[in-house]
């Protein structure tokens, strides 16, 4: 849930800067288990989620502003 909230926040910020939705796309999405070892063996503790977004900035001088905002 945290990942989805953060991704939505970044996407909203990019759109507010005039970046077209067509220039924002998911580049990578991964869910990985996190284990904690105990004396009896591996125990599932939760999951780690990674989401990479690929953004095309068409007005080159705006690149710094886009990075700062996102």
List the keywords.
two-stranded antiparallel sheet, elongated, alpha+beta, 2 strands, 70 residues, single chain
How is the main sheet built?
2 strands, antiparallel
Number of strands: 2
Helix content: 25-40%
Overall average residue pLDDT: 89
Number of helices: 2
H-E order: HEEH
Q: Termini distance?
A: 19 Å
What portion of the residues fall into strands of 2 or more residues?
A: 35-45%
Extract low-pLDDT stretches.
Answer: none
Radius of gyration, in angstroms, nearest whole number? 17 Å
Shape: elongated
Helix/strand structural class: alpha+beta
Which strand order spans the largest sheet, edge to edge or round the barrel?
Answer: 1-2
Structure description:
This protein is α+β, with helices and mostly antiparallel strands. Helix content is 31%, strand content 43%. It contains 2 helices and 2 strands. The protein has helices at 2-16, 63-69, and strands spanning 24-38, 41-55. The chain has a two-stranded antiparallel ribbon. The model has no long low-confidence stretch (mean pLDDT 89).
Compact summary:
The chain is α+β, with helices and mostly antiparallel strands and 70 residues long. It contains two helices and two strands.
How are the elements arranged and paired?
Layout (H helix, E strand, L loop, with lengths): L1 H15 L7 E15 L2 E15 L7 H7 L1
Antiparallel strand pairs: 1-2
């Amino acid at each position: 849930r945290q990942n989805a909230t953060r991704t939505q926040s970044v996407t909203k910020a990019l759109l507010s800067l005039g970046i077209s939705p067509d220039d924002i796309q998911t580049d990578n999405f991964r869910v990985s288990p996190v284990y904690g070892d105990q004396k009896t063996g591996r125990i599932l503790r939760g999951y780690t989620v990674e989401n990479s977004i690929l953004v095309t900035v068409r007005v080159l001088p705006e690149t710094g502003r886009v990075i700062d905002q996102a």
